[in-house]
Amino acid sequence: MYNFDVEMPTSIADAVKALGREEAQPMSGGQTLIPTLKARLAAPSVLVSLHSIPEMKGVCKNDAGDICIGGATTHATVAAEAVDYPALASLAARIGDPAVRNRGTIGGSVANNDPSACYPAGVLGSGATIVTNNREIAADDYFLGMFETALEEGEIVTEVKFPIPEVAHYEKHLQPASRFPLVAVFVAKFADGVRVAITGASENGVFRWTEAENALSGNFSASALDGLSLSGDKMISDLHGSGKYRAHLCGVMAKRAVAAAS
Amino acid sequence: MPKDHGIGASSKRREDVRFLTGEGNYTDDINVNGQAYVYFLRSDIAHGTLNSVDTSAADGMEGVVKIFTGADFEAVGSVPCGWQVTDKHGEVMQEPRHPVLAHGKVRHVGEPIAAVVAETLEQARDAAEAIVLDITHLPAVVDMKEAVKEGAPKVHDDLTSNLCYDWGFVEENKAAVDAAFEEAHHVTTLELVNNRLVANPMEPRVAVGDFARGTGDHTLYTTSQNPHVIRLLMGAFVLGIPEHKLRVVAPDVGGGFGTKIFHYQEEAFVTYAAKVCNRAVKWTSSRSEAFMSDAHGRDHVTKIQLALDKDNNFTALRTDTYANMGAYLSTFAPSVPTWLHGTLMAGNYKTPLIYVNVKAVFTNTVPVDAYRGAGRPEATYQLERLVDKAAHELKVDPIKLRRQNFIMEFPYATPVAVEYDTGDYVATMDKLEEMADIAGFKKRREDSEAKGKLRGFGVNCYIEACGIAPSNLVGQLGARAGLFESCTVRVNATGGLVVMTGSHSHGQGHETSFAQVVADMIGIPEDMVEIVHGDTANTPMGMGTYGSRSLAVGGSAMVKATEKIIAKATKIASHLLEASEGDVELKDGAFTVAGTDKSVAWGDVTLAAYVPHNYPLEEIEPGLEETAFYDPSNFTYPSGAYACEVELDPETGQVTVERFSAADDFGNIVNPMIVTGQVHGGLAQGIGQALLENCAYDSDGQLLSASYMDYAMPRASDLPFYDVDHSCQTPCTHNPLGVKGCGEAGAIGSPPAVVNAVLDAMRSGGKDVGHIDMPVSPHRVWEAMNS
Amino acid sequence: MTQLKMTVNGKAASGEVEGRTLLVQFLRENLGMTGTHVGCDTSQCGACVVHVNGEAVKSCTMLAVEANGAEVATIEGQAAPDGTLNTIQQAFQDHHGLQCGFCTPGMVMSAAALLKDNPKPTVDDVRHYLDGNICRCTGYHNIVKAIMAASGQDVSAIAAE
Ligand SMILES: Cc1cc2nc3c(=O)[nH]c(=O)nc-3n(C[C@H](O)[C@H](O)[C@H](O)COP(=O)(O)OP(=O)(O)OC[C@H]3O[C@@H](n4cnc5c(N)ncnc54)[C@H](O)[C@@H]3O)c2cc1C
Ligand code: FES
Ligand code: FES
Description:
The complex is a heterotrimer.
Chain A: E1 5-7, H1 12-18, E2 24-27, H2 33-38, E3 46-49, E4 59-61, E5 67-70, H3 75-81, H4 86-93, H5 98-103, H6 106-112, H7 119-126, E6 129-132, E7 136-138, H8 139-142, E8 143-145, E9 148-149, E10 157-162, E11 167-174, E12 181-190, E13 193-199, E14 207-208, H9 210-218, H10 243-261
Parallel strand pairs in A: 1-3, 2-3
Antiparallel strand pairs in A: 4-5, 5-10, 6-7, 6-10, 8-9, 11-12, 12-13, 13-14
Chain B: H1 15-20, E1 36-42, E2 48-54, H2 56-59, E3 64-69, E4 105-106, E5 112-118, H3 121-129, E6 132-137, H4 144-147, E7 163-169, H5 174-182, E8 186-194, E9 197-198, E10 206-212, E11 217-222, H6 227-239, E12 246-249, H7 265-277, E13 281-284, H8 287-293, E14 296-297, E15 300-308, E16 314-326, E17 353-362, H9 376-394, H10 398-405, E18 412-413, E19 419-420, H11 425-435, H12 441-450, E20 454-463, H13 471-476, E21 485-491, E22 497-501, H14 510-522, E23 529-532, H15 550-577, E24 584-587, E25 590-593, E26 599-601, H16 602-610, E27 625-630, E28 639-648, E29 655-665, H17 672-691, E30 723-725, H18 745-764, H19 778-785
Parallel strand pairs in B: 1-13, 11-12, 16-17, 22-23, 29-30
Antiparallel strand pairs in B: 1-5, 2-4, 2-6, 3-5, 7-17, 8-15, 9-14, 10-11, 10-13, 15-16, 18-19, 20-28, 21-22, 21-27, 24-25, 25-26, 28-29
Chain C: E1 2-8, E2 11-17, H1 23-30, E3 49-52, E4 55-58, E5 71-73, H2 87-94, H3 104-117, H4 123-129, H5 141-150
Parallel strand pairs in C: 1-5
Antiparallel strand pairs in C: 1-2, 3-4, 3-5
Helix pairs in contact in C: 2-5
The structure holds flavin-adenine dinucleotide (FAD) and FE2/S2 (inorganic) cluster (2 copies).
One FE2/S2 (inorganic) cluster binds next to loops of chain C.
């Protein structure tokens, strides 16, 4: 690791200020950033820890009935406390391993937008809203591609707001080495339609499978997906699976998610 | 009644207490006053001409002590290879020079080019980033069959080609084998890959070099399975340090699995640099470095054929294997695909005619050498996959076909130059059939099918050659070392013993099991026996631990030394008892005169040895300390039968191991608990190879599985509980304990059972693909099911 | 350099660290507590697991400064002051849940965290809880068995020798 200073602000305002320093970078759980620093693939001169900011922690419900999760809330806390949104709690409970879940956070995951991360599927699949220090961004406008988001330099994810669907489920097929998803599908059924978000598969990161959404909005059952398929062309192809295999898994995982949700 | 102490007891491991409380002493826990740290700048390309290494910008950077490049090591020896194979034309193998730091050329990703010694590791790394390399890229050779083609880029310009050797075994039999194939009623042919693996002991390698200018003494602390071997290879061949000025210490070592046998450049580097810099130099491998610098394992591509007569008797076997050596010859690399592989091709079967051809090939990849099982898993996998394939082609029960061809009489001389002393393959197969509950399989398959899954059952046998090895034999076969083992037993005045063994323990529990043997022989409590290992300063010259040899060879040396102790103690006792030596016997820690109630305790005899007041000084020397060296007269031949049951999800291709049964014959057993644990660990590695692990390169020689993000290590949730039995025991006939060795069996015996089970499951789903390569990943299964 | 203070195994500990110093480096290098191990650089092996304020964390993936003021528990503090092994440690020895011992500190600390949250886990719970702890020696059989035994459950049905 290159050396850096560490700042530990206790409010969002102080964090934003600290991020104004030259080459500053936020760190939340560090479960992605610290391994990256070890490989010397990042060289911030100041790390701004978001870990000691009480207003960025915790799970609560707002007046609209949304579940609001502070950006620095760990996966373990979401798993334990998002009881009103069991599919989301279950997603959080299956990220990595217990020690990772005790540190890693929703804000870090959503900011990082790893093409194989779990939360992006939950956030996009729920039609959640990403709240930052200066605006709110709809999930549909937030994920812009592999490791790319709508966040500006120095902008931090302070909260994510999830509307609660009627039913939902997250189905994950593991990449055997990293234990991230090889392909995972989040399906959520709302009164006004169904959302299907897929992670792990596309070279462009998390995406919605609109064809499946349309089919499921009319008939929320696994059989509604019969005959639907995705092309493997723009899908990730690596040691663990070809694009074609990933495309196939999207269908299988989507059906299983629907079956488990309904 | 299970025994509660001594040979045969599941004594709790004494080493556990320090490991469970954080008091283990691993190499990285050792820090020498004033030590500096080294960071190796490694090649990130597979093949290139190294035009220059410019350290000028780095030299003056903060904390830098000294920067070394290949030029600094020109006068130093090359990293030696410990085995010379002679090919089928009687020519010796091609043996390239293996520099400590790359010089002239880089030949694999991860090869060290420069080494920065600095006050801190981060400073060393900072300076390494400022080193400017001028490298001309050359095309890389990765695929073995491409590498041996005319005109392929050469890994070593000074060798005639990339072919290290072309070995034929037994060459004189080739014509007869080919003739048998001409006459065969049925021939089964199989082409397969034995996937490249990374051993991945959880402790990465570490080396700390220290030098005392005042005395000229060198010390190397290193994560090794065999400190004396490192002392010999590094001292004599690389650095020219006489052994009496070089101490090598391998303290607690966090697993080895073969990859810590070899002498590596980093060990030579820190030892050399400590003298040049006049201060200790420490290197701790990161896991990422380990992936590109620890010797890899396996990596064979094989075509194998079996000839059968009309009654399904095996009449001949022939194989054609390409074995990857990587870019350089690691310490024992040439022996693995030859003498540790070809000699095992008879397996458990009385096939009368066998011919094995192995082409060892240089490629632009990390060197490949022994990994748990070394050669024997490759032999077992081919043979047991082939026999299964033959059974399906012939529509006979795979177990029946195996039983029909079992070797039934011992000793049995195979057509591949070894003689099995004992074994009972029927007994282990009988036991296995009982353990695997074959009768219940139909129901279990129906239950799986009700869930939309397929279920498969697979079985295999294995034989291995352990307890390496008779020195005169291996000498004829090209080993440049003896393979004896040593032991010194020192009895203290008050009766306690210090047993100094040349074996090394890096998880095998020798401190417990070796003590059980000695305590049992004398009839004293185990805690009166201390086992010392791992330091060349206080143990006799030993060859270390690998090839499941510790108890069979090291234990035999210990028994011999203890026998010498007992013989001398009996003499002293007979003097004290005023009886004739022939009438005195040692039992339960006391010497008694036969037919009388006269006795003298062990402790009184040992005290007399060191306080020789009433002592036959004119006949025997005072003191009680003996050394023995044991050189085995043959290999040992553990064997067994394994069964695996898998469930396969046809939609995703995911395979899970539902049951695994292992019936082994290890001969006599000293500590059943430890033996069972050794089998468990081997099974996990074998199942890992079959389902998960894959060390892959792309065509440019870039390592694709370079960390745990892409190299799938088996986790607890990937594995079942195992059902392990070792009640079938045909003791080894040629070592005093009758033991055979158990460390590698699990890794050797399990991959074919898993793959056979997967293929069975696929067949039950209507898809007979004949073969599928390891690792049997979901992706591969799905592709095969949909091909 | 930052001056740190924390409680390690109930005792006050302090030292000077850089921003980049990892908690595991602070433990091993500053405090000389080498029981906590490092087995990887991608946060996967779990050899480094310790408890910070009662929660299992990978000490290789946490900055030392982030543990300032925290209660840290490591393998060195698990046995009683007189050296008597705790229930989990004793179960690991009784059931041969370790071989080379390198993964063991992390395994024991993870097991302790599991049993705190889930005192009577199922075999499946144990196996999944260990997703972040890699052992290369034991094949996990005896680790899982030891943890089940430490939870006070009957393990006689799990195959032994
Ligand atoms: C062994 C292991 C297994 C894992 N398995 C999974 C898995 O199965 N599924 C999965 O989804 N993930 C997995 N992860 C990743 C884990 O979930 C991470 O915790 C997460 O991706 C990043 O969260 P973090 O809080 O640790 O972020 P950090 O590592 O702190 O930061 C990640 C990035 O986001 C930025 N950042 C952090 N917080 C914010 C913020 N609030 N606003 C703006 N930018 C911010 C940082 O600057 C950095 O660039 C795994 C990680 C490990 C080590
Ligand atoms: S050292 Fe591997 S997870 Fe921490
Ligand atoms: S005991 Fe060796 S890694 Fe677990």
